[in-house]
Amino acid sequence: MSGAALPVADAGTSGCQDLPVLKQRGQREVFCGLTGIIWLHRKMQDAFFLIVGSRTCAHLMQSAAGVMIFAEPRFGTAIMEEKDLAGMADMHDELDKVVSRLLSRRPEIRTLFLVGSCPSEVIKLDLSKAAERLSGVHSPEVRILAYSGSGIETTFTEGEDTCLASMVPQLPDDGSENSLMVVGTLADVVEDQMVRVFEQLGIGPIRFLPPRRSADLPPVGSGTRVIMAQPWVNETVEALQRRGANLISAPFPFGVEGTLEWLVAAAEPWGVSRERVEEVTAKARERGRASLARYREVLEGRRIFFFPDSQIEIPLARFLHRELGMVPVEVGTPFLHRTHMGPELALLPRDLTLSEGQDVERQLDRCMAANPDITVCGLGLANPLEAEGQTTKWAIELVFSPIHGFDQAGDLAELFARPLRRAQLLEV
């Protein structure tokens, strides 16, 4: 189901839906999907994520989630030893023992995710069968699911997508009851803001995937309208559509414009007019515009280059261009889903390079030749680019920060203004 019509694009913006895409398949610089656990385990308070992998997997998670050192996290690693890889031990027996010890120690767990990694997938350990077998032992107290967090062919945000997709078959049948499902992990404060607006508009019931409690699975059926909150939940949305849900097409809720259009599209199936949405959100939009105004002086006219990292690049380029006057030089994304990104592509200018996938050496050459004012990239590229005199923004911070909605628009702009201000202070 499509949402309401988008506003007429600004002068000089004719949309880039049919712009040729530079497709690259070479060396990539990305985190693996295991890192999605960092925000998923915080969201679902009664879930636990058991990675089946190597010591490298364990070290990655301990480093990436070091902020959890003062609290017992809801994730861990079942470490595969040499005897497991050599076939000297029965991997399934070993996994069963680990799961039993974990559940006896942590009785509050209601959903246990067995998370595949590069090592477990290389030796063809079938975690889906293991989850099915273990569910027969531990249900109904604990639901046990499996998904892949491997980084062999994916980028790190796809870990959330595969996790949520694994939950879709478990969702109860909602029949034909009208409801709205927001898909993609959001900070609780952002979720609460959205609920308040939807309630004012008379839209509901509202459900979120993932839920705050993994045991409270949202129902789905032919009356379910699905709207994406994160741009990387493509597999999950397609799985929901196979369950009968209808997709609402909309820009993503980044910035004032994006959030308004997202809400207008969500409200349309309930017969709520654009004028009513604008009336209800007037004060929030004014706060958002006021918070953006202080950053426009810093960002307007600045040229920005996006390396592919999380699939969030196209919506952010739209926000920065249309609301802050930045000039996107190249917008790279790991994977371009033209249907889901259609509303965003319609709002981007045509005079940019749109690239999918990565050949990092060639993209580095293009970046150095373009000499942008700021480059958005992964941690592995930031320091080398800074050493070459480039100003960079860590892409991963854009995933971990609450940036959705009117009231977070200024915080989102600040993430891009801060590196430029720092660069100015360091100039000699």
Describe the structure.
With 428 residues, the chain is of the alpha/beta class. The protein has 3 domains: 21-28 and 291-426, Rossmann fold; 33-154, Rossmann fold (3-Layer(aba) Sandwich), CATH 3.40.50; 173-282, Rossmann fold (3-Layer(aba) Sandwich). The protein has 18 helices and 16 strands. It has helices at residues 37-43, 55-64, 82-85, 91-105, 118-122, 127-138, 158-167, 188-201, 234-242, 255-267, 274-280, 282-299, 313-324, 338-345, 360-370, 379-387, 395-400, 409-426, and strands spanning 21-25, 47-53, 75-79, 111-116, 143-148, 173-175, 179-183, 206-209, 220-221, 224-228, 246-247, 303-306, 327-333, 353-358, 374-377, 392-394. The strands form 4 sheets. It has a 6-stranded parallel beta sheet with strand order 1-14-13-12-15-16, with helices on both faces. β7, α8 and β8 (206-209) form a beta-alpha-beta unit. α7 packs parallel to α9 (234-242), α10 crosses α13 and α12 (282-299) runs parallel beside α18. The longest helix has 18 residues, at 282-299.
